[in-house]
Amino acid sequence: MGKFMDVHSGFVGVTAEQLRDAHDRDLAIEHDEDVHFERAWLDPEQGKVFCLATGPSKEAVQRVHERAGHPTPEIYELTVEL
Amino acid sequence: MGKFMDVHSGFVGVTAEQLRDAHDRDLAIEHDEDVHFERAWLDPEQGKVFCLATGPSKEAVQRVHERAGHPTPEIYELTVEL
Predict the structure, then answer these.
(1) Nearest chain B Cα to A9, which residue?
(2) Taking CB atoms and an 8 Å cutoff, what residues of chain A touch B42?
(3) Which of A8, A30, A60, A68 could form a disulfide with A25 if both were Cys (CB 3.0 to 4.6 A apart)?
(4) What is the ipTM of this complex?
(5) Model-level pTM?
(6) What is the pLDDT of residues B18-32, one digit of tens each?
């Protein structure tokens, strides 16, 4: 299993409730891909969302996000963690 | 106090030891700005580093990184966290 950070851009003005809804859509299907989205953070002023996940591959993380309706081209595999 | 994610680009091939050294330079001086760098993650293939910090302001986080020798223009204030 690997650890991944994905970054979503263009979410200026998103609310806490909207982030929670989006995150819940990931959590509802993540087990299909053996992925778990551990944390999510939002900067609504600059419109950035960061999601920290574990899973078997970058592609598995991407598939969950795609099916949940919020794909992103930016997924990073975090092979070092402090 | 706020929570911040900063993103560093262009670190392709950086090693775990180099990340540890850079992180230690932040930790050595962060108290001057009332900042704490909690976590750091590295994707050495795509050259991205993510640092999660708490502190009084984005500028305070930036000043620590500048003095430690690794400034970045990308610092996000995380007002929502799941």
Answers:
(1) B76
(2) 78-81
(3) A68
(4) 0.93
(5) 0.95
(6) 999 999 999 999 999
